[in-house]
Amino acid sequence: RAPFEGHTRTPWPGCSGSLDCSSDCLATKGSSVARHTLAPGAEVDVYNLHMEAGGCPEDYEVRAQSIQQLLVQMEERSGDVAVIMAGDWNLHPDDAQDLPQLQRLVDEGGLTDACWALDCGEEHIDRIFFRSSSAVTLEVGQWEVPPEFVDQEGAPMSDHEPVSATL
After folding, report:
1. Measured between alpha carbons, how far is 96 from 79 in angstroms, rounded to an integer?
2. What is the pTM of this model?
């Protein structure tokens, strides 16, 4: 009903650790984006990503470089197109080095954190951001930690809880 087009995947500019610092170099992490056409002239760029993990100095640097890359990509690709950006950010608001990067993304990208918008009172490394455009207004109606992401025995299917939002 509403196609996705122009899918691209962009790896982060670096990684940290092969057998240390969360071993992120063992997996290619980055972002992907595709344009979702809701109606003629009403488009949303949907970004999905997995950010560098870990707490080594190099991890913080890679995350900062990745945020910069993402902001440039949004400016060049998404311009005045609405944006939904979701994924495993590995940014912890209670970490003095992560919080400025998270705030930079919000401020410079013109993004709204769905959890913060609803004052959900919870912080997770999975986050959903959004921004409207001149043609599309996005608003968050609901944010939650969905309970169904467990295996048949009820064990979590990830090392951390997922989040979902209704926009």
Report:
1. 30
2. 0.92
